[in-house]
Amino acid sequence: MTDWGVSKFQVALTRDEVKEGIGRAFIEVDDVATWRVTESAFSVGEIVSDTVERKRTRISTRPLGAVAYAEPVDNIAEHGLVIRYKTRQGALRDLSVPKAVFEDNQALWALLAAQGLQIMVSAKGRLALKQYLIECEPEHVIRTYGKPGWHETEVGPVFALRDRVVGDPDGLIQSSSCSPANTSQFGTLKGWLEEVATPALEFPPAAFGLLCSFAPSLIPHVPFTDDGGFHFHGPTSSGKSIFVEVAASAWGPNKATPRASPYVQSWNTTLNTLETIAEGHNNLPTCLDEIGEATPGTIGKAAYMLSDGQGKKRMDRSGKAQRVRVFRTLVCSSGEESIEERVGKSNRHLFGGQAIRFCDIDIRHEDLFVEDPQKAKALKFATSKHYGHAGPLFVQKLRVVLQNEQDSSDQNSRLEEITKALVGDETDPRKHRAASRFALCQLAGEIAKRFDLLPVELDPEELVGKVYKAWATDAGATATNDNKTAAKRLTQFIDERSGLSIIRVIDGQEQHEPRGRRDGWIDEKTGYVFLLRNALADALGAYSVRSFCRAMVEQELAILKPEVPGQMTRKTTAYKPSGDLDITRTTMPRTYQFRLEALRAYADDVDDHTPYTTKESQQCLKDTRDLLKTAP
């Protein structure tokens, strides 16, 4: 006999049942169904028969009962009941339901229907079932959790997942509070080690995905504050997707797994949905594939939101503040385009803060690229055969380590040691922020090896060193240099506006009228570009015009002087300050002059531009440096 908790509970009689002399009514739960039972005794006058007439009416096609009181551990889950029910296949399931749901008929019947439970349409039966769920008081108490990840309880740290709570066997996630990631299991741990983890070592991005799968579970227990992610990009069929799928395989199924909700998610979503996804992957890797499906605006905002670990503040219809989603995660992303390229396609620019939060890594780097389509295909297939074992086992063993204060202290010092080894003598704090994320993955790999969850052949230090080098010598070189990023924005602005608002000039003659406002001039003979200050400010966006110009002057890429190549730019103003006296004044606009090809070389990190050599140019440089001290 299955334990159905409160298997018998008295409910109210209807008015007609009272008139008919029925003595009492109650809910009864057995292994067949949930019933409404009435009992009445046959009587003649004052003589009452000892025989009791029972009548059972089925309320649900399969049994469901209240087995425990749901006590929330955090401020996300709500007080409620744990309902046990039987599926169509005969399996038992426990579901934590907030008490508030029982007060709303539509929400209650919709929730039960979503579990596959068929409730009879009888109003009498439904009213009795609702009274049972609202008023019954189970003796057993089960802790419930509002989202996945680590939680502190009276039994110590526990890790909540959709299908279990590591450290609290009776605990449950309240799925109505969030959308937890699908951390289901299939295959075996041995199969995962032999068919996924070991073959992944032949592909550096896939091997790095192994480290990323364990890293988020360390975040609350080490001095780490630089949440964010890694984005591998490259041409189609280059092996970038296996980074995401291998990272996901430690916790759940990939997108190709039949009859299973995938752990891997798509970038084809809105920013609001990304908040929900991130919260459902709290202390877990958030795996997002195909960045080309996301809009540039979503990507730019997602970089800040996912790394900051907090969703948008909103109000409900009554004007009260809604719950803000909070999470700590590590994003594993892939796509044919880099984040910078994807954002740039909509005339937006990737700011340094966004680039640091999401490290663009080109899979074609010499230390990372391995072309073996057959092995890559076999590895992808293996991630759909064996998944969901290594991750939960990692947090189960980590939970034991966390209870040892000395081991926790060693982890903290090791993280700082790895970060220093990666950055070397680099003093830029932005490099340190990105390096700490790589260091977290290396530390997770070292711990997972101690737990026998990674192949012994894997060297986390060597692997992370390769991937960090691929980032630091490519996207990381410009992401941490605001001047180079601003130079890229400026060259893109010039390319877009040349021949339109930037006037083409040949031999001192303007070749066309400006379309819209005048932004500047480009001398096609010398290759010099002359920009007005407002145009330069628009091109640079949030970057400081003064700081950028000062840096360009030091690089001998720009000078500031009242000179333009066209003759139509002189501004003549006639005015009469008093009487009949006419005063005519001719002025020239102040322009910022750039050497376009040298500026391109600087933006592309190609140090092949030549400095100013003429005496006149050197004097202009000196005058510009003096002028910048007072220029707005």
Could you give a quick summary of the protein structure above?
The chain is of the alpha/beta class. Helices cover 38% and strands 22% of the residues.
Q: What report would you give on this structure?
A:
38% of the residues lie in helices and 22% in strands. With 632 residues, it is α/β, with parallel strands linked by helices. Helix 6 (204-214) runs parallel beside helix 7, helix 8 packs parallel to helix 9 (296-308) and helix 15 (429-450) packs antiparallel against helix 16.
List its traits.
single chain, 632 residues, six-stranded mixed β-sheet, 25 strands, elongated
The helix tally amounts to: 22
**Cα-based radius of gyration, to the nearest Å:** 34 Å
- Averaged pLDDT: 84
Characterize the main sheet. 6 strands, mixed
Q: Tell me the structural class.
A: alpha/beta
Strand order of the largest sheet: 19-18-20-21-25-22
Helix content: 25-40%
Q: Identify low-pLDDT runs.
A: 566-579, 581-585, 608-614, 627-632
Q: Please give the number of β-strands.
A: 25
User: What portion of the residues fall into strands of 2 or more residues?
Assistant: 15-25%
For the record, give the distance between the C-alpha atoms at the N and C termini, rounded to a whole number.
Answer: 83 Å
Describe the global form. Answer: elongated
